Amino acid sequence: MSALKNLKTIILSSTLLIVAACSAENAPDSTNATVLDQVSIKNQANPEPSIYTGGQPSQEALTALSKAGVKHVINLRPLQEQSKTQDWNEAEFVESLGMQYHSIPVAGAADVNLENATKLAELIKSIDGEATFLHCASSNRVGALKALHEGAVNGVNSDQAIVEGKRWGLGSLEPLVRDQLNNPQ
After folding, report:
1. Strand pairing of 51-54 and 72-75?
2. Are both 67 and 155 inside the same structural domain?
């Protein structure tokens, strides 16, 4: 009987160790969280466990994001907007750091629409939980697209969609988003 009890204890302990190891493998590394806390990016937020949002990152910030384990960068800024504010190619730089670069150009209010919101949601879904940094110049377009998707696709009421959008960076585009949610075409 004692041998059976010992065997059960060993099996239970082994199972708990395996579960703990698997959980630790999928959990954010505290070193990574520390690195991300030290990155200086305008309006930086962490609205979902593996999603980080913010304004335009510098090369130094992108390097830190890479070291912290971020695997994807999604840029909502069109090339013509980027060329006005930076003298380096973000796509090439991101890829040189071993991260994957994705672009959904949202040139301004006219491009804050359900089509782009859906593209963004589908891209995030395809990334399947890998650490991602999502940005525009300030994170306003990021939050606007998230709010639109929440309201128009997920059926969340406009007030709740706006709250969710603000968690992702929505700011001055709120009236536009609210109008689109309340007056769908």
Report:
1. unpaired
2. yes
Model confidence pLDDT, tens digit, residues 78-104: 988 887 778 889 999 999 999 999 999
Tokens of 136: 């525009």
CATH number for the domain harbouring residue 101:
3.90.190.10
Do residue 88 and residue 115 come from a single domain? yes
Which residues span the domain enclosing 1? 1-28
pLDDT 10s digits, 35-65: 566 778 999 999 999 999 999 999 999 999 9
> Coil, helix or strand for 73?
strand
Q: Which CB contacts under 8 angstroms, 24+ apart, belong to 69-72?
A: 69/28, 69/29, 69/32, 69/131, 70/99, 70/131, 70/132, 70/133, 71/99, 71/100, 71/127, 71/130, 71/131, 71/132, 72/99, 72/100, 72/101, 72/102, 72/127, 72/130, 72/131, 72/132, 72/133
Total domains in the chain come to: 2
Decide if 33 is inside a domain. no
User: Do 14 and 76 have their domain in common?
Assistant: no
pLDDT at 15: 37
Handedness of CA 10, 11, 14, 15 (dihedral sign): negative
Residue 157 to residue 150: CA distance in whole angstroms: 8
